[in-house]
Structures are given as structure tokens and as C-alpha cells.
Design a protein that fits this description.
N-utilizing Substance Protein B Homolog, Chain A; single chain; mainly alpha; 155 residues
């Protein structure tokens, strides 16, 4: 995975963490404000910045849906009781698998790396287990929906 995408995920994680612990996760104005404050400390190329902003906006807008999916696959764990880093790493990865068209294996690998870097000693195993369950759930759609009228290309 490109270094720019990894930096985007790191920036998005830090923004979502700041919103989460600051109890402002549901307000788009606060999300924009937090995004600007946090990303001021990153050297992100324009494309990487746009991807980080997409991740933050997507997770923020779909938080209830994402949290419900995480809760359904995190056996014996309530989302609000998870460590803030783990919870937000999971949110980013689920958003990517569900809405950004990121292949599940890529989303999981990147999430495990984020958890390893920013979480506790056990975070990477926990994140891997939950995301593996989400990825293998039969009713989960793993790609961005195709727009109406769009045709898939022949191989």
C-alpha cells in the first residue's frame, strides 16, 4: 500500500480519535475543525489529504451503521467500551470495506498496522479478529456500489 494512503489513514485516525475523546463525533463542523487542526501537523499531498478527509467524513456520517456492524462482530465487546484507538481503527477499516471499495484484505492489513503502531500490545490481534469476522459475514457488501447505468468492464 502506498505511503500516502498510510499517512492518510494515520491522519484520519488521529482526527477521529480527537473527535471521539472530545465527544464531538457527530458534528460535521467540529469534524472539519478537528481535521484542519490535526492535519496541520502532517505533510500530506493533496490526494492523500483528500483521502484522509473522505475517511473522516465517511466514518462521521455513517458512524451508527459502522458501530452496529462492529458490535455485531465483536463478541462480548460493546463498542463504547473498546479502547478509543481500537474503536476508531475498526471504524476506518469497516468504512473502507463497506463504502470506499478497498479490498477487505488491504483494509484489514492496514488496520492491523495502525493498531500495532497506535494501540496497545493486544490491539492488533483484537482488530484483526473483529475485521476478519466482518469481512467473512455473508450479508456484507465489500465494494462501493456501482452507479445506476454504469457497466462493468469485461476482463
Amino acid at each position: 500500500m502506498s505511503a500516502a494512503r498510510r499517512a492518510s489513514r494515520q491522519a484520519a485516525l488521529q482526527v477521529l480519535y480527537a473527535l471521539d475523546v472530545g465527544h464531538g463525533a457527530g458534528h460535521s463542523a467540529r469534524a472539519d475543525e478537528a481535521f484542519e487542526a490535526v492535519t496541520a501537523h502532517f505533510e500530506l499531498a493533496e490526494g492523500a489529504r483528500a483521502f484522509a478527509k473522505e475517511l473522516v467524513a465517511g466514518v462521521t456520517q455513517r458512524r451508527a451503521e459502522i458501530d452496529a456492524l462492529i458490535a455485531a462482530h465483536a463478541t462480548n465487546w460493546r463498542v463504547e467500551r473498546m479502547a478509543a484507538v481500537d474503536r476508531n481503527v475498526l471504524r476506518i477499516a469497516v468504512y473502507e470495506m463497506q463504502h470506499a471499495g478497498t479490498p477487505p484484505t488491504v483494509a484489514i492489513d492496514e488496520a492491523v498496522e495502525l493498531a500495532r503502531r497506535f494501540g496497545s500490545e493486544r490491539s492488533s490481534a483484537f482488530v484483526n479478529g473483529v475485521l476478519d469476522a466482518v469481512a467473512h459475514a455473508p450479508a456484507v457488501e465489500h465494494a462501493a456500489p456501482v452507479e445506476a447505468g454504469a457497466r462493468e468492464e469485461e476482463p
